[in-house]
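Title: Comparing notes on inverse folding

I've been comparing how different people in this forum approach sequence design from structure. To keep things fair, I'm posting one structure and asking everyone to reply with a full sequence. Here's the target:
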């Protein structure tokens, strides 16, 4: 089973109430080869919500207690991001996920790049909070940008 970001499946759960539909993700869901999650909603957020970025590092630093997730208004929301990460981990373990496909650049889901915490649209290398926790627990995480290549490698047994 594959776990996918709900926004990639076409659900309007992003901070601004939109989605990031990826046709391949949607097809995997339609074929019952994937289940969707939104770490932010699992953590207790509503849609829409304020944009948030990691200040002082990336998701690994948040888990280490040396960085925070902060909304544009300045409200610290680290606890909700960590809660959502743990709930996503629980779901991935429950379905014995072979891989988790998360939305790149998100403070939860980024798997290679996240916004740098300045709220200026600048990206930096790093993981989101959920990605960091999943990887610490031995779960493979990729972005939607890597999905096609992954599916070519694993073949039809997905």
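Reply #1:
Here's my take.
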């Amino acid at each position: 089973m594959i776990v996918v970001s709900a926004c990639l499946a076409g659900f309007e759960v992003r901070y601004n109430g939109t989605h990031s539909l990826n046709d391949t993700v949607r097809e995997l869901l339609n074929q019952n080869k994937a289940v969707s999650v939104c770490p932010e909603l699992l953590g207790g957020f509503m849609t829409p919500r304020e944009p948030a970025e990691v200040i002082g590092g990336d998701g690994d630093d948040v888990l280490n207690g040396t960085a925070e997730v902060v909304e544009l208004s300045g409200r610290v929301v680290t606890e909700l991001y960590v809660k959502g990460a743990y709930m996503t981990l629980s779901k991935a373990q429950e379905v014995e996920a072979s891989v988790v496909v998360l939305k790149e650049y998100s403070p939860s889901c980024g798997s290679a790049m996240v916004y740098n915490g300045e709220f200026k649209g600048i990206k930096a290398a790093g993981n989101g909070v959920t990605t960091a926790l999943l990887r610490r627990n031995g779960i493979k995480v990729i972005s939607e940008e890597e999905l096609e290549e992954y599916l070519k490698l694993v073949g039809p047994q997905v």
